[in-house]
Design brief:
The protein is an alpha/beta fold and 282 residues long. Helices cover 14% and strands 35% of the residues.
Length: 282
């Protein structure tokens, strides 16, 4: 009864309503739960989604599409913004068989990308290098290294001539990763959307024909595709140039710092029509 629950110190909003089930004549009456709550009218205004704990909210958020639903949810309040970035909503790439039993965990980056949704974050486990070759990214995604040291999380592209590790056909953010490519391959190919590189390391192996190499290649015309490249605190090694721009783009706001430990660290933007169309630019 209502008084029994109140004697145990339970709030009225926590008590479920029951009614008698008399659908079968001659059978004893049974109590049946109804999912609605008995809440006095004066307390209706105080009942809202924020009373749920983080675990329950995350289970709900998993059913939402990251883009745009979760991004819109993050605008509601600070708590929802923090939950939107919770690692339990991320996809994981792991080589360990024990980890593969966990939900949202995949053995390769290609599997994780194909199972992802627009706006998802994919975290790559450090340790053993992840082999990639021509992984096409067709919707906005974020790739994050699983360690604070970029050298511990590596993507290796053993592809042939003019192949790329990642083919970006949509906006991407890549952070905390080391990407290595064979001499005549490239680490990244940018075709469309916004590409952001933060605290990464890109490296092309040495080759006699390294004047044909570039760790980053872009075929995107920012005046038509609205695509730009932003490079922030990223080490780029190998090749005759850091980036090859075939669409007549130009580098802007270039900053380079040389350190004895890390080599050349770059900050620059790529976008805007170049003054000349004589070919690839450094």
């Amino acid at each position: 009864s209502w008084s029994t629950y109140c004697e145990h110190g339970m709030a009225e909003s926590q008590v479920q309503r029951f009614h008698w089930n008399e659908s079968l004549p001659g059978t004893p009456k049974r109590l049946k739960k109804v999912h609605s709550f008995m809440v006095p009218e004066e307390e209706d205004a105080s009942i809202h989604l924020d009373i749920l704990d983080d675990t329950v909210l995350l289970r709900i958020f998993k059913y939402l599409t990251p883009l745009p639903d979760l991004f819109n949810i993050a605008l509601v309040c600070r708590r929802f913004h923090e939950l939107k970035n919770d690692e339990r909503l991320w996809l994981t790439v792991s080589h360990r068989s024990t980890q593969l039993k966990l939900p949202r965990t995949y053995p390769s980056l290609e599997d994780a990308v194909s199972s992802s949704r627009p706006g998802d974050t994919i975290v790559l486990e450090p340790g053993k290098p992840h082999v990639i070759c021509g992984v096409n990214v067709r919707w906005p995604l974020q790739f994050v290294g699983g360690s604070s040291l970029i050298t511990e999380t590596q993507l290796v592209c053993p592809g042939g001539e003019y192949e790329s590790g990642l083919e970006c056909w949509a906006s991407c953010r890549i952070a905390g990763l080391t990407i290595r490519a064979n001499p005549l391959a490239s680490c990244l190919s940018h075709h469309k959307g916004r590409l952001i590189l933060e605290s990464c390391a890109l490296r092309n192996d040495t080759h006699p024909l390294e004047h044909l190499c570039a760790p980053i290649r872009t075929s995107c015309d920012s005046t038509k595709e609205r695509g730009r490249i932003s490079v922030v605190e990223t080490r780029i090694e190998g090749g005759a140039k850091a980036i090859s721009c075939f669409a007549g783009e130009r580098l802007q706001q270039v900053r380079v710092i040389y350190t004895s430990n890390s080599g050349c660290v770059f900050w620059f933007e790529v976008g805007g029509k170049a003054l000349t169309d004589d070919g690839p630019m450094k």
